[in-house]
């Protein structure tokens, strides 16, 4: 097999992989309202809680930080995630998961 044909095979493989990656859905950030417990006491009650954007990537980063800080947190993080991967956590649970992780 000549060098040119090998290059063509690799180029076609890269093109196929690129096409597959472009077809995959991108993870979108989810906007959620901060719960009332997160509202600071000095704020007026009429003030709405700030909208917080929590992404899968931010949850993954938080998990990794907690485990790197203390390896004993590995089991606790798994428990918080319910034995699931971060990408399998429903968007409705992002706030609760983030709060539980931050409490570690």
Descriptive account of the structure:
With 104 residues, the protein is mostly helical. It has one domain (28-102). The protein contains four helices and two strands, in the order αββααα. It has helices at 3-23, 56-69, 73-80, 94-102, and strands at 30-33, 51-54. It has a two-stranded antiparallel ribbon. Helix 2 (56-69) packs parallel to helix 4. The longest helix is centred in the first third of the chain and has 21 residues, at 3-23. It is elongated. It starts with a helix and ends with a helix. 4% of the residues are buried.
Structural features:
two-stranded antiparallel ribbon; mainly alpha; 104 residues; 50% helix; 4 helices
Q: How many distinct domains?
A: 1
Query: How do the strands line up in the largest sheet?
Result: 1-2
Helix percentage range: 40-55%
Largest sheet: 2 strands, antiparallel
- Summarize the helix and strand pattern as letters: HEEHHH
List the helices and strands and how they pair.
Layout: H1 3-23, E1 30-33, E2 51-54, H2 56-69, H3 73-80, H4 94-102
Antiparallel strand pairs: 1-2
Q: How would you summarize this macromolecular structure in one to three sentences?
A:
This protein is mainly alpha-helical.
